[in-house]
């Protein structure tokens, strides 16, 4: 069969370039600087919009999240890859998603925003990248020794459709803007591109990411674990395209100080992203990848999303999230607790070194 232009390494490079260019262009249309696309930040904004937290500067139903899920959904339907499945340690996945968000809001961004910050000249993001790699390597240590959240099972197609339907419901609420939905009047939540531009951008990113399996955790994991460079090319392509596009628009600023929505505490930037990298490696993918899998009917990834949504709510209700002035004491404690809990989960679900498991692991590795 003749291969498509989007197949292979060429496809993942093109996808990375598209994601990077779209992210920077969304800033030109109104999104915050170095935050054209941030899965963690945008989930946090949605949590605020539906009243799960009351931090008024970060409340908005982000169409990009809706678009990413719907783009992945439509592409998986077209490619006949939509399969409703789930049941792989759902509560553990929820907890891991929760702490991935805690780590991301300590760093002030998900892995995708980490690349956007690097491509915008934010030197602070280098500490995040170091932590991200350390966290993934920690996850690889347990994966190589048999870590598993057990197999998932095929579910009714209706269950797979429910998450995209919920995203459509959020889109309706965004369009109608009822009084029980909260919208920021100042701060990052008030800064956004036109609704339909953001929605279209998300659909394009979701469709391409589904087609090529783009995953920022997977790129580093596969490079270390299998010496496979396929996914890491997408990572590098995003960085290069973001850097070039920022230079084109004059928004590139190489510095440590004065970066938008960032703090200069290198230690906690690093520790926050260790938590993100480790938790995401155990979950089988970065926050962007979890959205893509959710759109494909993977209910396990929906549980990851719900964990991240609740983690965002807790972060702002209990002063865990960092701010441009730096991390909070509560946030530091939460990150340390998160690292301990993720270590316990990794240990107790690893065949080779756990005293709590007997016999062979039944089923698949993480997605």
Task: Outline the fold blueprint.
Elements: H1 8-28, H2 39-49, H3 63-78, E1 85-86, H4 90-107, H5 111-119, H6 124-143, E2 153-154, H7 157-176, H8 195-212, H9 216-226, H10 230-249, H11 266-283, H12 287-295, H13 299-317, H14 329-348
Antiparallel strand pairs: 1-2
Helix pairs in contact: 1-8, 1-10, 2-13, 3-7, 3-8, 3-12, 4-11, 4-13, 4-14, 5-6, 5-10, 6-9, 6-11, 9-10, 11-14, 12-13
Molecular structure report:
The structure is a single chain. This protein has 14 helices and two strands, in the order H-H-H-E-H-H-H-E-H-H-H-H-H-H-H-H. It is mostly helical. It has one domain. The protein has a two-stranded antiparallel sheet. The longest helix is centred in the N-terminal third of the chain and has 21 residues. The protein is globular and about 50 Å long. The two termini are 27 Å apart. The C terminus is likely disordered.
Question: Main attributes?
Answer:
367 residues; two-stranded antiparallel ribbon; 14 helices
Q: Which structural category do the helix and sheet elements fall into? A: mainly alpha
- The radius of gyration over CA amounts to 19 Å
Q: Give the helix tally.
A: 14
Helix amount: 55-70%
Fraction of residues in β-strands:
under 5%
Number of strands: 2
Q: What form results from the Cα inertia axes? A: globular
Strand order of the largest sheet: 1-2
Uncertain runs:
357-367
The overall number of domains is 1
Please provide the ordered H/E string of secondary-structure elements.
HHHEHHHEHHHHHHHH
How far from one another are the termini?
27 Å
Would you tell me the overall average pLDDT?
A: 95
Major β-sheet profile: 2 strands, antiparallel
């Amino acid at each position: 069969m003749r291969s498509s232009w989007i197949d292979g390494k060429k496809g993942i490079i093109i996808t990375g370039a598209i994601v990077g260019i779209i992210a920077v262009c969304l800033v030109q249309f109104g999104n915050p600087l170095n935050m054209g696309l941030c899965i963690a930040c945008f989930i946090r904004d949605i949590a605020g919009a539906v009243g799960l937290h009351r931090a008024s500067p970060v409340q908005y139903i982000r169409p990009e999240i809706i678009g990413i899920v719907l783009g992945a959904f439509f592409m998986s339907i077209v490619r006949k890859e939509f399969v409703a499945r789930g049941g792989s340690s759902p509560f553990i996945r929820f907890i891991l998603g929760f702490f991935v968000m805690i780590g991301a809001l300590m760093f002030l961004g998900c892995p995708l925003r980490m690349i956007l910050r690097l491509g915008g000249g934010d030197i602070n993001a280098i500490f995040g990248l170091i932590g991200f790699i350390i966290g993934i390597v920690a996850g690889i240590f347990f994966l190589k020794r048999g870590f598993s959240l057990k197999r998932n099972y095929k579910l009714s197609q209706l269950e797979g459709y429910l998450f995209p339907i919920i995203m459509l419901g959020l889109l309706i609420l965004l369009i109608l803007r009822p009084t029980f939905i909260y919208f920021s009047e100042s701060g990052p939540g008030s800064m956004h591109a036109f609704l339909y531009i953001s929605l279209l951008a998300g659909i394009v990113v979701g469709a391409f990411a589904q087609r090529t399996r783009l995953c920022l955790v997977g790129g580093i994991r596969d490079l270390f674990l299998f010496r496979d460079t396929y996914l890491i090319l997408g990572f590098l392509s995003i960085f290069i395209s973001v850097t070039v596009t920022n230079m084109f628009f004059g928004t590139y600023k190489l510095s440590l100080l004065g970066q938008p929505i960032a703090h200069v505490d290198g230690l906690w930037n690093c520790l926050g992203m260790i938590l993100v990298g480790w938790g995401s490696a155990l979950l089988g993918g970065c926050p962007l990848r979890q959205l893509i899998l959710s759109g494909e009917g993977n209910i396990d990834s929906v549980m990851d999303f719900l964990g991240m949504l609740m983690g965002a709510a807790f972060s702002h209700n209990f002063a865990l999230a960092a701010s441009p002035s730096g991390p909070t004491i509560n946030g530091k404690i939460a990150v340390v607790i998160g690292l301990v809990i993720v270590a316990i989960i990794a240990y107790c679900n690893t065949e080779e070194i756990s005293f709590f498991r007997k016999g062979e692991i039944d089923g698949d590795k993480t997605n």
